[in-house]
Amino acid sequence: MIRTRFAPSPTGPLHLGHAYSAITAHDFARRHGGEFLLRIEDIDQSRARPEWEEQIFDDLAWIGLTWDGPVLRQATRRAAYEAALCSLSDRGLLYSCACSRHDIAEAASAPQEGVEPIWGPDGLIYPGTCRPPKSNTTDDRAAQRLNITAALSGRSTIAFQELAADFKTANNNMTFASQLINNIGDVVLSRRSGDAAYNLAVVVDDAAQNITHVVRGADLLSATPIHALLQHLLNYPTPIYHHHALIRDTDGKRLAKRDDAKAIAKFRDEGATPDDIREMVGLPPRSNL
Length: 289
Description:
Layout: E1 3-6, H1 16-31, E2 35-40, H2 50-62, E3 72-73, H3 78-90, E4 94-97, H4 101-109, E5 119-120, E6 123-124, E7 143-146, H5 148-151, E8 157-163, E9 170-176, H6 177-183, E10 188-190, H7 198-208, E11 213-217, H8 224-233, E12 240-244, H9 264-269, H10 274-280
Parallel strand pairs: 1-2, 2-3, 11-12
Antiparallel strand pairs: 4-7, 5-6, 7-10, 8-9
């Protein structure tokens, strides 16, 4: 059975970009008699708000989406994330890192002053300051990083299936190990606060919910090889992915939660219908499904 999901963070209003992603995942599952699940990515409790969570439910229901089973909340999943971290740590694939963002920026630019540091999907490519045997910090507030070189030992490539725009064919997306090392680096899997980082939480949660197809924006395509690697390391199945085009504003910038002018609730208050929302993002009306 096909199982898709939508996983918003309750940190602001859903906008048209969220609508496009949620509707696309929902309709794909429903067309194939599958299930559509909802996950609330509220691991950052300092920013999550219950009123935004309720708004998510209201917005999705209003545009005609239904979800199956209970809503999964990341805030309740700490034990599952810690178990995954322990599994990786026991194999020597993690190391502690006490570097601040400022430390990383300085170290990344130090070797060749004037040369722009390399940015990856997780931010600046980590220069390896704390990677063993360079350091063995015992700072209780240290983050936990994946030693990407050790994790890729014996593997020359990381591959996953990418569902084409027609949702009928899947193509092999392959990344060479050297690209992961140079373009992604040692990503953080557990933050200094002790909270799981996105790259770990999304992999653990997709496995827990038995997600078969991940439908999400093209801005996350560059991070998918690290997710496929973590799935391999944790003995999880790798879903089929579909990275859709982003909904952008009139200036060509992708929408963010601060773009209240594009919020679903605002359009609704102004008299728009659910099919109007579908038309705005280039999707067919519900009657055509």
